[in-house]
Amino acid sequence: MNRVVDPDHTSPPAAIDYEMIFQHAPVGMCVSTDRVIQSCNGALAEMFGYAKGRLQGQSFSVLYPTMDEFLRTGDRIVPIMNAKGRYSDERIMRRANGELFWCHVTGRALDPAQPLGAGVWTFEDVSEKRPVSAELTPREREIAALLVEGKTSKIIARETGLSPRTVEMHRASLMRKFSASTSSELVHKLVGAR
C-alpha cells in the first residue's frame, strides 16, 4: 500500500541548540566586544591553559605575548575589517603558563561599522605543524607572521609603519635565527615545513 504524503504538512524542524554547538565546537571560539571576551567555549580556555570561565571579561591582551603586540595587531585589524568585514591570520600567541605557540585566528564583526566592536572569533592551535623554535622579539614575531602570509618587505613596511630597511633588518635577523639562507627557506622553516 502506497502512503500519500501531504505536501503542505511538514514536520517542524528540530530545535537547534546553538549554545551546545558553541560549547562543543572543535576549535576555540569566543564572542567579544571592544576586544574583551564576553563568552568563550571550553576549547578556547583549554587551548590557552585557562580554567573554564576564567577568560570571560578578560581583554584579548592576556592571549598575546606582549601588550605592544596586542595593540599593533588591533591597529592592523581595523583597515582589513573595514574593507572585508572579516579578518584572518596566523600569529604567535601566549598560553597562561607563558608558552608561545602559533595560532590561526579568524574573526568577523557583527556590525561592519565597528570592526573591533562586537564580534565572533575562532582560534586554532597550529603549533603541532608549526612549533615556535627560536627566541624571537615581539617585532620579529610580527614580521614572521606577515612573511608566512606571503607578504613582501615593502607591504610589511606599509602595514607595520616601519621603513622597508627596518623590515629587511628583522628579516635578516630571522634568517640567522632559523639558519635560513634564502627568504623561501625562512618561510618554510617558519611554517614548520621540513
Automatic annotation (TrEMBL):
> Entry's Pfam families?
GerE, PAS_9
Q: HTH luxR-type domain: which residues?
A: 129-194
Question: What keywords is this UniProt entry annotated with?
Answer: DNA-binding, Transcription, Transcription regulation
The UniProt entry, under InterPro entries, shows:
PAS, PAS-like_dom_sf, Sig_transdc_resp-reg_C-effctor, Tscrpt_reg_LuxR_C, WH-like_DNA-bd_sf
Q: Enumerate the SUPFAM superfamilies for this protein.
A: C-terminal effector domain of the bipartite response regulators, PYP-like sensor domain (PAS domain)
Q: Which SMART domains match?
A: HTH_LUXR
Domain of life, source organism: Bacteria
Q: Which PANTHER family match?
A: DNA-BINDING TRANSCRIPTIONAL ACTIVATOR DEVR_DOSR
Q: What is this protein called?
A: PAS and helix-turn-helix domain-containing protein
What species does this protein belong to?
A: Massilia phyllostachyos
Q: Recall the taxonomic lineage recorded for the source organism.
A: Bacteria, Pseudomonadati, Pseudomonadota, Betaproteobacteria, Burkholderiales
